[in-house]
Amino acid sequence: MLKYLVASLVLLCSITSARAETIRIGYIPIADCLQLYVAEELGYFKAQGLVVDKTPLNGGSLIAMAVEGGELDAGWSNTASLAIAADRGFDFAILSPGAFEQAPDRREHSLLVAKNSPIRTLADLKGKTVGINALGNINEIAVAALAAQSGLSVKQLRLVEIPFPQMEAALTSGHVDAVLTLEPFVTIARNRGATRVLEPAALKPFGTRMLIAAWFAKRSWLDKHKTAAAGFALAMRKASAYIEKNPAQARELLTRHTKLTLDLAQQITLPLFAQKVEDSDVQGLIDQAARFGYIKKAFPAQRLNLPATQP
Amino acid sequence: MKRAHRSHAERLRGCAFVAFLAALWSGVCASGVVPEGQLPSPYEVLRAFIAESPRLPAQALATLNRTLLAFLLGGLGGLGLGLGHGVFPLFRKTTHLAIEGLRPLPSVALIPLGILLYGMGNQLNIAIAAFACAWPCFISARDGVRGVNPMLLDTARTLGLGRAQTIRRVLLPAAFPAMVTGLRIALGIAFAVEVSVELVIPKQGLGALASTAALAGESGLLYAAILALGLVGLLLNHLLRRATQRLLRSYGPQWSGGA
Amino acid sequence: MRRGPDWQGLVFCLCVALAWEVAARQELLPPRLFPALTSVLAQLAEGTASGAFPRALAKTLACMGAGLLAAACMIPLGIWAGRSEQVWRTIGPSVEFLRSLPPALMALPAMLLLGIGDAPKIFAVFFAASFPILLCTMDGVRAIPPLFLDTARTLQVKPSVLLFEVILPAAAPGVFSGLKTALPMAFIVAMVSEMIGGADGIGHLLLRSQRSFDIPQMYAIILVVALTGGGIAQGLYLIESFSLRWYSGWKRVCGQRCD
Predict the structure, then answer these.
(1) Of A131, B51, B60, C62, which is most buried, counting CB atoms within 10 Å of its CB?
(2) How far apart are the first and last CA of chain B?
(3) C50 contact A CB<8A
(4) Does the distance separating the beta carbons of A58 and B203 come in below 8 Å?
(5) Architecture category of domain A109-202 in CATH
C-alpha cells in the first residue's frame, strides 16, 4: 500500500509542477459540455493564453474527486453534486456557468413511460418502478420533488439505477414503469415512438430557469490562478454567446465531439447557455435537496458562486 | 500425463459438445423465448466479433498490459512479503495481524478509494489488481518457506552454511515450486480483477468495451467482447501452464504436471 | 498456531492506526479525502446502529447465498465428471473456456437478459461460483484413495451407499477447497454487480457514498466489507475443520498427502 501511496505522491508532484498556463479539465463527452468543444475549436482558450488539457470521464463525482485531489484543476459537474459536496464540507466554487434549463422550450430532462402504459399522471406512479441514472443525485431529487407535487412520497416509488442509454429498452421491455431521461435520449425515444412523455419538464420543481451543471474548481486553486480562471470563464462566456447566436453550427460541431449523428444533433433540444448565473438558478435545487434530506441543511447559493469570474 | 495424449476422437467429443451448446443457444434464439435484442444468436455474435475485430486487439492489449503490470507488481510484492514472513519470524509476528486483517478485503471494495488515490487512469486498475493478486503469492511464498523439510535446514547447518547462504541455497530453491504455483493463481486473479475494475469504470480495455456495449444495449458487441475476453483468458492460462511446466521440470511430475 | 492474544501484532496495528490518525489530523494528505480514523469509526458505529449497513450487507449476502445454492448443483456434476473420464472429456473444453472468463463479467449479459433487480446478481454469483466448485469436486473425487473404493467394492455395497457414505465424504476435502475459492469470489462478484447496476446492497452503498462525497462513510463501508470477508473465510474454516475431522486424522495415520 505504502509503495502505491509514494508512487501516487510522486506522480501528483510531477503533475503539479507541469506547464504554467495549462488548465487540466475533466468533462463528460455529452451535449451539455458543448461550450468546451466550441471554445476549443474556435480558439477562445488560445486567445486567453490558455492550454486546456481535457480528460473525458464518465461520472461527475469522479471529476470532483480528481479536482479535490489536485489531479485536475477544474471540471464539469451537475449542480446537485456541487451542492452535496458543499454540504459535506468540500470547498468548490463555480468557475463558469454551464448548461441551463429554462421554461418552456429549453427543457432537456423528461419523464417517460411506455406508450401503452396505464400511467397517466404523476400520481399514478405510486408503487411503480422508476429508472434514473444515479441514485442520490439531481434526478432522484427531481423525482422526489415531482412526486411530492402530486402528494406522493419518494418512498412510495421504487427507484432503480439505469444508465441513460439503456433506459428506453428497460421501459419497453417492462423492467421499469417510468424513466427520467434527458436529451438526446428523449428525442431518440420520441422518434422510435414506443414511449410517451409523462412530464416534459422533469426538472421544473427547481424553478423556471435553473443551472443544470457548471464548470467548477477548488477555491484554493481559484485564489492561486486568478488570471487563468478569469481567462477560462471568459472563453466559456464567448462560447455560450456563440452557441446562442449560431445554434446550427454549434449542433454540427457537437457531432464531432459526441456520438451524435448530424440528423439527431439537429433535432435535439439544446440546453440554454446563459452568460451569467443568478442565485435563483441554483437556490431552487439547493432548497429541494435540503427539503428531501439529500443535504443536511439548505445554504445560500452564493456559497457556490464566485463573483469575480462573473461579467 | 493422461491429458497430453488425447486422440482426435477424444478431442472431437469436446468439440461436439461445444457445437451442441451452440446449437442449443441458436435454438433458444430462434424459438423467440427471449425477447429480441436481449440474446443474440451465436451467428450474430460471431458476425459482431468479426466486424469488431479491428477494434478488439487494441482493447485486449490495454487489458493485458495492465494485467501483466499488476501481476508483476503484486506478484513481486506478495512474494517479497511472503518470503519476509517465512524467513524473519520477528517481522511475521509483528505484521501478521495487520496483514490477516487486510487480506480478506475484496479488492473491488477498494475501487472508490483507488479513485481518490489514482484518479481513473491505468494506475487505478493496476494498483487494485496488484493488491488482489499479491495475496496468493504471499501465502505460497510464506508457506513454501515454512514448509521446507527441516532435514534440509539441518543439513545446511551441518555443512556450516551461513544465514544468507541458507536462504539463497536452501530455502529459496525449496520454496520455489510453491511460489510458482502462487504466481499462477495470481495471474488469473490479476486478469479477473483488472476486468472487474474495467466493468465498474469503463474507460479502456475489453471489460470497458463489454460494459459500454451492455449499457448501450448492443448485445452483439457485448458478446463479441466476452468472446475476446474468454480467448485472452484461455491464452493466459495456456502460456502460464507451459511456463510452469518448464520452470518446474526439475522438480518432478508432482509439481510440473498439474492441470 | 499460537494461542492467546498476539500482543506484537496488536501493537503494530495500533501503531498503524495511530499513524493514520496523526497523518489525518495534521492534514498531510488532502483532508477531505483522508478523514481521521476516529471519524471513520464513528461513521461505522452510526451506520451500524441505524441499520443501514446491516441491511445493505444482508441484501448482498442474500444474493450471494442464492447464487451459491444454485452453484451447489455443480457438486453432483463434479462427482459425475470425476468418476467418468468420458464426461469430463465431453464437457471439458466448454468448461475450460467458460471458466477463463473473468467471473464478474457475467453480470452484464445477465443484466441484459434478466433486467434489473436481484436476478442478474444471483446469476452472476452462480456463474462465478460454479466452476471452482465443479473443478475442485472433480479433483476431490479423482483423489479418493483407491483403497476406499476397493474396500467398498469388496464389501459389495449398494450404489447409494457408495455415493453417500464413501464418495461424498471422501470427496469433501475437494468440495471444501472449491468453496474456499468460490465463497470469497461470490462475495466479490455480488458486490461488482451491485456496483455496475444496482439499487441496493453493500457494493452499491459503497459506490454511492463515494459519489455523494461521504468519504468517512466510504471508509467505514470498506471496513465492513473487510470484516465480512474475514468472517466468511473464518466461518468456512471452522465448518471445514469440524466436518473434516476424520480427514486430518486419516492424514495423520497414513502420513501421506491426499490433496
Answers:
(1) A131
(2) 10
(3) no
(4) yes
(5) 3-Layer(aba) Sandwich (3.40)
Q: Start-end ranges of CATH 3.40.190.10 in chain A?
A: 2-101+210-309, 109-202
Q: Which residues contact B242 (CB under 8 A, 6 or more apart)?
A: none
C-alpha to C-alpha distance for C56 and C61, rounded to whole angstroms: 9
Query: Model confidence over A75-112: pLDDT tens digits?
Result: 999 888 888 888 888 888 888 888 899 888 888 899 99
Task: Please check whether residue A170 touches B, CB under 8 A.
Answer: no
CB A217 within 8 A of CB A92: yes
Question: Out of B98, B191, B226, whose CB is closest to C109?
Answer: B226
Chain A residues touching B203 at Cβ < 8 A: 58
What are the residues facing A179 on neighbouring strands? A112, A131
For chain C, list the contacting chains (3+ Cβ pairs, <8 Å). A, B
Nearest to C191 among B97, B109, B113 (CB): B109
Q: A163, B215: Cβ pair inside 8 Å?
A: yes
Q: Is C117 on the interface with A (CB under 8 A)?
A: yes
In angstroms, the CA B110 to CA A295 distance is: 25
Nearest CA in chain B to C232: B104
What subunits make at least 3 CB pairs under 8 angstroms with B?
A, C
How high is the ipTM of this complex? 0.78
Domain range list for chain B? 63-256
A7 inside 8 A of chain B by CB: yes
- State the CATH class of domain A2-101+210-309: alpha beta
Q: What is the pLDDT of residue C45?
A: 92
- Per the listing, cell 458478446 goes with B223
**How many Å is the maximal CA-CA distance in chain B?**
77
Identity of the residue numbered A136: G
Contacts of C143 in chain B (CB under 8 A): none
Interface contact A8-B117, CB threshold 8 A: yes
Question: Per-residue DSSP letters for A144-162?
Answer: HHHHHHTT--GGGSEEEE-
C-alpha cell belonging to residue B246? 518448464
CATH architecture of C52-253: Orthogonal Bundle (1.10)
Size of interface B-C (CB pairs under 8 A): 161
* Distance from the A275 Cα atom to the nearest Cα atom in chain B, whole angstroms: 31
Taking the Cβ of residue A89 and every Cβ of chain C, the question of whether any pair is shorter than 8 Å is answered with yes
Residue in C closest to A80 by C-alpha: C212
pLDDT tens digits along B49-100: 888 888 888 989 999 999 999 999 999 999 999 988 888 888 888 888 888 8
Q: How far is C66 from chain A (nearest CA, A)?
A: 21
Question: Could you tell me the pLDDT band of residue C254, with boundaries at 50, 70 and 90?
Answer: low
DSSP assignments along chain B, one per residue:
-TTTS--HHHHHHHHHHHHHHHHHHHHHHHHT-SPTTTS--HHHHHHHHHHHTTTHHHHHHHHHHHHHHHHHHHHHHHHHHHHHHHH-HHHHHHHHHHHHHHTTS-GGGGHHHHHHHHTTSHHHHHHHHHHHHHHHHHHHHHHHHHTS-HHHHHHHHHTT--HHHHIIIIIHHHHHHHHHHHHHHHHHHHHHHHHHHHHHS-SSSHHHHHHHHHHTT-HHHHHHHHHHHHHHHHHHHHHHHHHHHHHTGGG-HHHHS--
Please state which architecture CATH assigns to domain B63-256. Orthogonal Bundle (1.10)
SS3 C154: helix
